[in-house]
Amino acid sequence: MKNNLKTTLIAVINIAMLLVFVGCNNTVKTDKQSSHKPIIPPKPRLQVDIAAGSPDLQWWRDAKITREQRLVDWRDARFGCFIHWNASALLGSTWKGKAYRGYGEHIQRMAKIPCEEYRRDVVGKFNPTKFNADEWANTIQKAGMRYVIITAKHHDGFAVYDSDVSDYNMLKATPFGRDPMAELKAACDKNGLKFGFYYSHAFDWGEPNGSGNDWDYENPGGDKHLFATRETKWYDEHPEIAPRIRKYVEEKSIPQVLELINKYDPDFLWFDTPHKLPPEENLRILKAARAAKPSIVINSRGVQPYDGMPSHFGDYRSTGDRAVDFPTRDGDWEAIPTTNESYGYSESDRSHKTPEYLTRVLVKAVARGGNMLLNIGPKGDGVIDTPDINILESIGKWMDVNEASIRGTVRTTLPVQAWGESTRKKNTFYLHVFNWPTNGVLKLGGFLGKVNKAWLLSDKNQTAIAHKRTDDMTVQFEVPTEAPDLASSVIVVEVDDAENVDSHRLISTTQDNMLRAFDGLAVGGEFKYGNGKSTDNGVSGWKHNDQLMTWPVYLSEAGKFKVIAEYKPFKQSNKFIIEAGKAILSDTTRSNEKGFIKHDLGNIDLLSGKQVIKIHSDSIPKGDLMNLRALHFIPLFEGNN
Asked: What is the pLDDT of residue 19?
């Protein structure tokens, strides 16, 4: 009797364990999945030599030779559309009556929805009957965007296309019965749009051997930080788990990447969250993609930085999520702001930015040599949300007039101006005036050469704008008293030599001078830069009084200014000093205030000529001095002191 009971209990336990490991039926093939018992690796975790000069990375060095050719169309476009859309859009970031804050496409993780339930009640009901690929592509093309990147598979593991690798796909797991990726690819081709895929190569909540799902499985890379801490990596702490995760890479990630390339011939691949996998696995995925299509353009999130490795292995660098401000940086890069604060559709997120704001973000990116990939999150029925449509249509109307100032332009050689930004094509500047001068006088600072002609880009007749040089570094233009466009009015300026510039920035005596920390020159130490989102666009990491943030400037005439420091304070108060030529202001940081504050420091007199504005600590700061966003030098006149 005891033996029978023991046999029965063992059988019940085995069945229970089998049910736990099967969990969701959204895997590649059930006979290919391994158990979740840690596998002792037969050889060291590293399967390749990941040092920068190793023979195992020769494929990457070979790819760099043809990089310039790959990036021609991407650079020329400057403006693209990011689309986060999958079954999660059905929920709109709400599950069982509870609205979740954060990215809508992360609802499965945020709500800890078991993957069996997610497949049945979310993916199984995903039927976007209002999806119209031609309408999407036409809307995007009219917005002035020239390329599209859409989610083929996000972190939930569901393929939004017809996948032969996994049954967890649009045709086999949903009632829709169509391949929206094939339809959108055809529509983009018809509308002259380059096309690419976002593919979550390192994060997969639906796979027993994938990383990230720690509510159905004891997998690394999730919110519980199993097998590691917030500061360490699971593959460094527990290399014995790597072979299990490697099965996911070999059986799903690499096969689906190759499948997307072979089936749809995309122009781009956009990878994400590489820190969820060991770097050598990410390198294997990237190598496979490069071999399948050497001309494909790949972003920087394929492989995470690692000791002895380059900063990234992609063709260009991606900014942090939702970046809207950008530090000066070399090379090619791409910003990925969203129309609201979520990438996937979120019903409760109505924080949509204005078209004027996003137009200026586009200009700021292009002025600094970058692209803007603006994200929208269509709804679960396949319709683009009305606020997103309105934003795209408004930007499109601006682009109808001003596209020449964006497409095909390169990083400007001019310093930032009080009135706005500039872009450039060879010896033509496009002055993007955000703050239009109501007195009819616009001053361009920092250009030393000859202006041949200037006109409003909105003027089809190209009527010349009168101009004159007022000193060695300043050109003055006579402009209308009313701005042609509220978002950005563009003046075309043809010059003899666009390289003939001075880096000193003109301090206006009529407009607010916002000296962003991102645009400053850091001296004397390693500063920490925020990721560029509107709540994290400052510079911190002030550890000693030899660290300075500086701005070379000049004034055509002396002036008096109110000085405001815009910063996020820390708990400790520290004394800081602002120097401008021979003038000095000092104060103590305010403590225990949340978010960025504007600290009025008083008035200062600035002399004409070149000088350097500096901010630094008075002594070694306690903790950190501040998280500096900007210094404002606001001109003072009689009556507004």
From this structure: 38
Cα(411)–Cα(367) distance, integer angstroms: 5
Give the SS3 label for residue 179.
Answer: coil
- For every residue of 68-121, which 3-state class applies, written as one string? HHHCHHHHHHCEEEEECCCHHHHCCCEECCEECCCCHHHHHHHHCCCHHHHHHH
* Helix, strand, or coil (residue 628): strand
Two tokens, residue 30: 């059930």
Q: Which of 410, 332, 380 is nearest to 64 (CA)?
A: 332
Q: How many CB atoms lie within 10 A of CB 230?
A: 5
Segment holding 22, helix H or strand E: helix 2-22
Structure tokens at 263: 């089936």
Q: Which two tokens stand for residue 210?
A: 């994938």
At residue 586, the 3 state secondary structure works out as: strand
Per residue in 337-384, pLDDT (tens digit) is 999 999 999 999 999 999 999 999 999 999 999 999 999 999 999 999
The answer to whether 122 and 114 are in contact (CB under 8 A) is no
3-state SS, residue 361: helix
Helices (H), 380-497: 386-402
DSSP state of 43: S
User: What tokens were used for 375?
Assistant: 């994200």
Angle at 519 (CA atoms; ends 413, 603), nearest 5 degrees: 120
Q: Are 229 and 182 in contact (CB under 8 A)?
A: no
Q: If we measure between CA atoms, which residue out of 191, 144, 95 comes closest to residue 408?
A: 144
Q: Using the structure block, give the residue that is written with the tokens 């991102």.
A: 518
Q: In this structure, are residues 408 and 76 in contact, taking their beta carbons and an 8 Å threshold?
A: yes
Q: What are the pLDDT digits (tens) for 276-285? A: 999 999 999 9
Contact 295, 71 (CB under 8 A): no
- DSSP per-residue string spanning 481-496: SS-S-SS-EEEEEEES
The helix/strand/coil state of 304 is coil
Question: Which residues fall within 8 angstroms of residue 582, CB to CB, at 6 or more apart?
Answer: 607
How does pLDDT run across 514-572, given as a tens digit for each residue?
999 999 999 998 999 999 999 999 999 999 989 999 999 999 999 999 999 999 999 99
Nearest to 563 by CA among 542, 541, 580: 580
Q: DSSP assignment of 144-157, as one string?
A: T--EEEEEEE-TT-
CA gap 168, 127 in Å, rounded: 15
- DSSP state for residue 166 in the 8-state scheme: -
At 298 the three-state DSSP class reads strand
Q: For residue 304, give the amino acid letter.
A: Q
